[in-house]
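Service request form, structural biology core

Requester: graduate student, group of Dr. S.
Request type: structure prediction, single chain
Budget code: on file
Notes: please return the result as structure tokens.

Sequence provided:
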Amino acid sequence: MEQEQLNPQQKAAAEYAGAANNVLVVAGAGCGKTKTIIARATHLIGSGVEASEILMLTFTNRASREMKQRLRAQVGELADEVVACRDGAVSRRDGVVLRLSRVKTLV
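Core staff response, request fulfilled:
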């Protein structure tokens, strides 16, 4: 599970192991939010977290598909078990354990 090069802030978010289970990534356009979230999911899977317990939220269906594609390039078929959706769709999913909370862009 090779990760792309991350800057220190991205690496800290990707490898966070504190008391909170959720990570909120807030950054402007083009700052590497998606790369950071993919690195976080890859790190969690590599640390033994079940892929089916990971939820990645974003604002658009297109962005959620892109996250899944990037994650698949990192972890292969395990990416199919990760839930990636736009934030309005999460209320329709039962039994999902939040490991990754919301992905927001503030421009």
